Amino acid sequence: MTRVANSCDAVNLSQGFPDFDPPEALIAAAERSARSGPHQYAVTWGAPNFRRAFASKQSRFMGVPVDPEENVVVTCGSTEAMIASMMTACNPGDRVVIFSPFYENYTADAILAGAVPIHVPLRTPEFAFDPLELRRAFEQHRPKALILCNPGNPTGKVFTRDELGFIAALAIEFDAFVISDEVYEHIVYAPYRHISIASLPDMFDRTITCSSLSKTYSITGWRLGTVVAAPRVVDVIRKVHDFLTVGAAAPLQEAAVTALGFPDDYYERLLASYTEKRDLFLGWLERAGLTFTRPQGAYYVMVDVSEFGVKDDIAFCEWLAREVGVAAVPGSSFFREPVHDWIRFHFAKRPETLNAAGERLVGLRDKIGGYRHG
After folding, report:
1. Residue 193 gets which letter from DSSP?
2. Which uninterrupted H or E stretch holds 194?
3. How buried is residue 326: exposed, middle or buried, by Cβ count under 10 Å (0-12/13-18/19+)?
4. Confidence (pTM)
5. Contact 15, 300 (CB under 8 A)
6. Could you tell me if 245 and 194 lie in one domain?
7. Three-class secondary structure assignment of 206-243
8. Could you give phi then psi for residue 47, rounded to 5 degrees?
9. pLDDT profile of the chain (374 residues), mean per 10
10. By residue range, what is the domain housing residue 226?
């Protein structure tokens, strides 16, 4: 959809990357490390100073002590963190529970690891799971792992303590891992609160927590990911990681130490900024008369386009980009079920970008007849 957007000069609210710069202090640190290095390999599982800074920061926010030597692996983005974790947790033929809708890589990761994905639906409008349905999946398939995205992409779902407790109880009962993708951990809107499932009783040893610096510091192109896990798990992830990518970029790790040392008010300002962006864009969706699920976290919003008689969401998104001038992701990208009447926008953009998109979306209804009869 980014290629489609570029081809027709649409406002690109599809692929989830910001159109604003990282913090100035981080840019300055990158300039210094580009000049002074390091320029050669770091320790493959992460430069020591990066791991120390990251462990200190995560110990504050995760609610559990994180040891930089025992509990941390630095990867090439959270994408690698997830596949390395999957290959660590699962042998070929093992089952993996994945909530649907899901970030597209999860099912692919399971397949690449030789595992069998078992999808459990999240029910609208809150994108919550049915506890009985989830228990049946565990009883029937005896999964080796469950993948959790909290806050969720594409749903914006933030799992409650009770929901996490239910998942944790199943993981303990059936001796399963939880692979928890927490890249949006600092983008959680009031009154919701992010809770790392690893912080729940008896869960640190069976949780593999994946994250990255991409969303928190607006550096999606730096590809710096992280894994936090128990030592016995980290030992295996480091071996898998070593054969996947060897290591993340050494000068970028050095620069990122600056960001990892930001005080707590950085994260407060980050959330305030994204809260403003969310409210601005959702206001435009309301003016356009569109039906959507209000995101509790992350920077995505799912929009229900069933009222327009959409049967092919891919064709609809191409039409939306070309005729309305706003690019979205077809919802079927995220669902295991045959769902074709949802689309996803993201709002990690400057206010002027969101206003430009909103003004175009307000005119959608004037043009929808052309889609229906096209």
Report:
1. -
2. none
3. buried
4. 0.96
5. no
6. yes
7. HEEEEEECCCCCCCCCCCCEEEECCHHHHHHHHHHHHH
8. -60, 140
9. 92 93 98 97 97 98 97 98 98 98 96 97 94 98 98 97 98 98 98 98 98 97 98 98 97 98 97 98 97 97 94 94 96 93 96 97 89 63
10. 24-261
